[in-house]
Amino acid sequence: MIDLSSAYYHTEHVNMFYVSAPENWLEMRWKGHISFAEVQEAMQKALKILKEVKSDKLLSDHRAVTNSWDSANRWIVEKWVSDAQSLRLRYVAFVAPEELLPRISLDNLYRMLMRRRPELEGKVRIFKDVEEARSWLRTMALS
Questions:
Q1: Verdict on whether the full-model pTM lies above 0.85
Q2: What are the angstrom distances between the C-alpha of 77 and each of 31, 70, 82, 100?
Q3: Residue 108 and residue 86: Cα distance in Å, rounded?
Q4: Per-residue pLDDT, 20
Q5: What is the pLDDT of residues 125-143, one digit of tens each?
Q6: Which residues contact 9 (CB under 8 A, 6 or more apart)?
């Protein structure tokens, strides 16, 4: 049995928790001014949780982010995605930030992902609404 207490992570800028069956995804809620180091730390913790709960889905909610995180995009695309794919992460739903600079960062990340990881087309999407993102993840087949 999975110890759900280890499937939770909280810092000043991110809350992360596992949404159990039937959804079976990891949900991250980012907020405030996030740094490259915070992105790396949280994303590494996400990998550990995804591995433990054997989930193939991630919802990354950026609505409350207030800054650009472009400095982390290359690391996410080149390092983190490879690690996530080795754990069989298949679907990622991003919820778009409300502010312009973080929205541009998310758009840049998405374009970089599609350019460098074309196999992710249709498996990574950006949504304006968190419920729409959750609904999409529910429709994705389990691995």
A1: yes
A2: 21, 11, 8, 22
A3: 24
A4: 87
A5: 999 999 999 999 999 965 4
A6: 15, 16, 17, 42, 45, 46, 49
Please give the structure tokens belonging to residue 76. Answer: 């996410």
Q: Which of 8, 91, 9, 83 is nearest to 47 (CA)?
A: 83
Tell me the residue length of the chain. 143
Instruction: Report the C-alpha gap between 72 and 40 in whole angstroms.
Output: 8
Name residue 59's beta-bridge partners. 27, 93
Task: Work out the number of other CB atoms within 10 angstroms of the CB of residue 56.
Answer: 21
DSSP string, the chain: ---GGGGEEE-SSEEEEEETTTT-EEEEEEEE---HHHHHHHHHHHHHHHHHHT--EEEEEEEEE-S--HHHHHHIIIIIHHHHHHTT--EEEEE--SSHHHHHHHHHHHHHHHHH-GGGTTTEEEESSHHHHHHHHHHSPP-
Residue 88 φ then ψ, to 5°: 75, 25
Q: Tokens 């907020």, residue?
A: 31
